[in-house]
Structure formats: C-alpha cells, structure tokens
C-alpha cells in the first residue's frame, strides 16, 4: 500500500480539539464518501468535528453513513444581526453593557422623520468558524468550496492554520499547507483510506463501506482502473467489513479520475440486433384476367367410302356339312 508524508497531519491532530472537513460545490460521490469517512473516524477519537458543503446533498448520497451530518454553513462563532432599513436613515448605532444583569444592549437610532426599526424584520445568523486542522476534500482549488469559502475567508486564508488538500483531481493548485495530492490514485476515497491506516485511526465497517462505495463510483465499479494499489485498497476494505455494491451505480454517481467516459459493457454479453429481410408483400388487389368466350370447334369431316351402301355378303372358308 502507498505511503504519504503524514507527519504534519499527525502533529496537528495530537494537539487539535476541533477538526473541519469541507467539500466542494456539487461534489462527486467519491468526495462525499471520503469526507464522511474522515468525519466518522475523527468523531470516534472524541474530536469535535464538523463537515460542510455549500450545496445540499442529493438522493444519490442518501445511503452513505453520516450524510445527515453535512451542514450548508459551518460558522457558529459570531452572531450576526441583520435587518432591512432605508439607506441613510440611521442616525446612530450604539451599544452598552449591563454587567450586573450580564446583558448587552444594542441601540439603533433613526434619523428624524424616519420610522423606527420594526422588530419583525430582524434576522439572526452565525458566521465565523474556527478549527485547529482543516481538510479540503476533492477540489482543484480552494475557491471550489463556493459560498463557504466566501463566508470563511478569514479562517481559510489564515497561514497559521493547517489545511490539508486531499485530492486526486488533475491540475490541482496545491493550495494546502499539506498536500495529499495523488493523481495516480483511483479517487479521494483511496487516499483517505491510506491516510486513516497510517494514522492508526478507527476503521469500522460503516467507514469501510463508504470508502468502497466511493472507489466503485470513481472507477465505474473498477472497470476503469488497472492500478494494483487500488485493488489492494479494495481488498483491505472488504477485510474491514465493507459491503460491495452498497450504492447502485448510475450515470449521476459514476465518475473517472481522468474525465473519460464510462466504458461500454462487454459486447459478448449483449444480444446482437436481429437481422431482418424484406420480402415482397402479396398483392391483395390482383388484376382480373381477361374474359374468354369459348368457341365451338367443328368436328373433323371425312368423305364416306364409295361402297358403304352396297349389301354385304358374308363368305366363309369353312366346309359345308
């Protein structure tokens, strides 16, 4: 089995209390399976782990273990108060603290002639995430995270954070402080298994099944790989209790590492098209035959013999008695 330089990851995990796993917009099943496997394994280590994706999970992913843990937003550090108000209508915004009652007061004062703020229009949300180590799974660039990247730029652009770029996609920008980038692997799930094995982390049957489903999807059920390392990984996952064919493959779940289209099925297993031959159809409206009226035929005439009316005398050669 392959070996990666995981020493920086191992060092970060030894002191980490929070782990963040991020998926790209519209992720492949392979990326989701790899991300969820990391999530389940880190959670078993009593690490506070969060997994996020800007786009909602589709029905194709609903059988993956832990898919309900994926969040569309990951920030939960900062409370954001939002409200609609006409432009240039605010006179002053101020705040004061009430230490005795442990309360914080925010005061919004409108300009003269403008209506006060309607409490019904106030909205609350959270932003600002924090993590000791961040795994970005299945992207070419960190901007592929979409809205999550825009919302969490402060965190993701922080050079002091350990960001692990786990991907097999071609033309990867290698944006991580640690790059587990392997374009020769069958998919992110193969890289994730090697990482978890080298870290000596938990690999239960649910995690193994997720990873095998990711590899099956990325390789069109192993039809598009000839790598012996991939087969070694598959064998290891089966030994760990992975279920083969757990997620039926469809055109929306299959992908390839190199962007090629799925191979056709074996032509010898398909029935050849039936050969047909056209024959002239019978004429249902035949033309009538011309009518022929039979004509009487005259009997052949023969001239009588000249002696046919003369009396005849019977002669005999016998002796009279």
Structure description:
The chain is of the alpha/beta class and 321 residues long. It contains seven helices and ten strands. Strands 3-2-1-8-9-10 form a six-stranded parallel beta sheet, covered by helices on one side. The longest helix is centred in the first third of the chain and has 16 residues. It is flat and about 165 Å long. About 6% of the residues have low confidence.
Shape: flat
Number of structural units classed as domains: 2
For CATH, the homologous superfamily of the largest domain is named as inorganic pyrophosphatase (n-terminal core)
CATH class of the largest domain: Alpha Beta
Distance between the termini: 143 Å
State the major sheet. 6 strands, parallel
**Rg over CA atoms:** 45 Å
Number of strands: 10
Separate helix tally: 7
Average of pLDDT = 82
SSE sequence, one letter per element: HEHEEEEEEEHHEEHHH
- What low-confidence regions span 5 or more consecutive residues with pLDDT below 50? 256-274
Structural class: alpha/beta
Walk across the major sheet and give the strand order.
Answer: 3-2-1-8-9-10
CATH architecture of the largest domain: Alpha-Beta Complex
Write the layout of secondary structure elements.
Layout: H1 7-15, E1 18-23, H2 29-44, E2 48-53, E3 70-71, E4 78-82, E5 90-98, E6 103-110, E7 123-127, E8 133-137, H3 147-151, H4 153-156, E9 162-167, E10 178-181, H5 188-198, H6 205-218, H7 228-239
Parallel strand pairs: 1-2, 1-8, 2-3, 8-9, 9-10
Antiparallel strand pairs: 4-7, 5-6
């Amino acid at each position: 089995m392959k070996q990666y330089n995981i020493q920086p990851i191992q060092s970060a995990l030894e002191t980490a209390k929070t782990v963040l796993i991020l998926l790209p917009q519209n992720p492949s099943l392979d990326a989701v399976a790899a991300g969820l496997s990391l999530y389940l394994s880190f959670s078993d280590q009593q690490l506070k782990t969060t997994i996020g994706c800007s786009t909602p999970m589709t029905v194709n992913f609903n059988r993956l273990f832990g898919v309900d843990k994926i969040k569309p937003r990951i920030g939960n550090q900062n409370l954001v108060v939002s409200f609609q108000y006409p432009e240039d209508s605010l006179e002053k915004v101020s705040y004061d603290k009430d230490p005795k009652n442990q309360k914080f007061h925010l005061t919004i004062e409108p300009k003269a002639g403008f209506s006060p703020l309607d409490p019904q229009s106030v909205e609350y949300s959270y932003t600002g995430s924090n993590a000791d180590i961040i795994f970005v799974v299945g992207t070419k660039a960190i901007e592929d995270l979409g809205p999550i990247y825009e919302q969490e730029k402060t965190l993701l652009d922080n050079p002091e954070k350990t960001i692990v770029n786990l991907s097999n996609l071609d033309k990867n920008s290698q944006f991580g402080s640690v790059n587990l980038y392997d374009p020769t692997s069958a998919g992110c799930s193969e890289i994730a298994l090697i990482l978890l094995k080298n870290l000596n982390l938990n690999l239960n049957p649910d995690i193994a099944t997720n990873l095998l489903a990711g590899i099956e999807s990325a390789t069109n059920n192993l039809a598009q790989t000839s790598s012996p390392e991939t087969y070694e990984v598959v064998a290891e996952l089966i030994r760990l209790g992975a279920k083969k064919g757990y997620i039926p493959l469809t055109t929306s779940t299959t992908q390839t590492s190199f962007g090629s289209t799925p191979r056709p099925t074996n032509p010898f297993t398909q029935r050849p098209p039936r050969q047909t031959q056209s024959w002239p159809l019978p004429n249902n409206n035949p033309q009538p035959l011309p009518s022929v009226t039979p004509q009487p035929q005259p009997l052949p005439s023969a001239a009588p013999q000249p002696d046919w009316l003369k009396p005849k005398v019977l002669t005999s050669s016998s002796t009279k008695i």
